[in-house]
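pinned: reference chain
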Amino acid sequence: MSDSIEAATSSLSSPRESVFIHPRREPFDHGLLPIPKLIFTDPNATLAPVRDKLVASAANRPSKRVGPTALSDALQISLDHARLVLDTLASVLHDDDDPLVRAKSSEVDVVGADVYDLILFLYIQSYKRLLPRTHKDSAAVADVWPSTSAFDGYLSALSPLQLVRSNSRRFIPSQADEEAHQLSYLQKHLANILSLLAEPVEGEGEESLVLTMERFEHLGFLIQFGEKGFEGVTLSQAAPFFANSDPDMPAVPVPAAQVHDWVLQNISSALEHISERVSAKENGPPNATDQDVPMADACASSMKSPKSARGSSFIEGISKSSYVKQAPDIKGSSVKVLNCHDSVIYILAPLRFATIYGCSDTTIVLGAVGKAVRVEHCERVHVIAAAKRICIANCRECVFFLGVNQQPLSVGDNHKLQAVAPYNTFYSQLEEHMNQVGIEPTVNKWDELIALGVVDPHDSLSHPAGVSDIQAESATRLDPDQFTNFLIPNWFGGESAGTTKDNPFPLPDAYMASQLRNNKNLGEIKQILREAPLEDNRKRELSCALHVFFKDWLYASGNIRQLYCLQGD
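pinned: its structure tokens
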């Protein structure tokens, strides 16, 4: 067996030495739900009977899949929570051709989920996120961020502005730290996970478990080969025991112990590689840039957002600036906006995932996000997003203008969420991007927010220890009289031609009436000014006064920076 493992490792490493096993980050970043009945102290013992119930239920359906009713019965959770589980699973599945991924919002109940994908999804609900490293000099930065911050000493010790000044993120878990943490979790739980996927050999009892190639492929929900995960190397192609299987003949099942040893060896090699990479970085020059998330420059026209090895773009440390990225500028399928302060950020591109973390006093416009958006540890941020789904975690005084096909999710300790409101902007390629990623403009559940518990069992930063779990604070609907359209500047003139001329999401009647009323009032004011019975010199004085007040507003609101950045472009 050891010979076959060594042969497999060498066959993968010889043509391309950089091909290692990686955890799929999407289930860990976007797939964890703080529902107490999904957190199992002994996942293997609990999920084995659940699996058997779901398999029996699926056997009665032509599709051999399970819907929310069967899931609700098996886990003793509400039907709404069961639907939430299926919606969340669909957003993080590894196979884009899976019927659940391709189903429209109204079809999820009928289509259902594969039992074994569902079991793996439920298993990792026991995962706990990696804690940030303690700042070496918390007292030195205490004056930058309010001591009464909602984030209990973490963000109070490290504000977005302080991060820009420090030019260091050694106290924040890097992408390598998080990946090693996820691999270590899988390493620890691999035997249990394989036992849930495996089946006993007929007549030989539970001790002789085997995996078919089909069951083995379900591990692709958690792990993948290749730095980007989309290099065409499936798990069965990488594994020596399935690599040369005849596609016209069913592959012979493999002992679960053999699979266990092979995956463990690959995880160990990957962890060793990560350790060497991190060690080399920490022992490098003191001012070396962290290649995971490089700091951005101070002006939008000169800033660069490098692509990571995993196909994600990072935008970090933008302060008092305007910043724009369009589709040609985004090289990966996901974007992370980290620790930005007092800025306006436009990401006008089709994406799979987007994360907004640790930002304050910033407006962020996301294009079309086909899988999931997560907004976490933000203060006084306005988010405008067209997305399949969004999760709001541990935020304070934020406003969300949403076009979303699934119910927004509020988790953790959200303080004084000011409001949610309908989507309020557009750019010329928006509808094209929405079509690319599968967002339906006719379905907008912006005001159907689901609030889960204040205590997030996956994240000890969400609330001080010892506080009993209560329902998270929900957001109010924005008053229609305060609703306005957000105008995206035409940054590049005719270079980004598209067909979208208006907001693709229909507005609710109250917001449409308010918009029409505001437009009418504006028209009347313009007409009054044009027809005012004033002499030419008085008209010039009036025009100058209006320009002065407008200029004062530009400076007071900070919007003058956008004009400077436009001039720079």
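why pinned: Residues 1-17, 135-170, 287-310, 462-468 have pLDDT under 50 and may be disordered. Residues 256-282 form the longest helix (27 residues).
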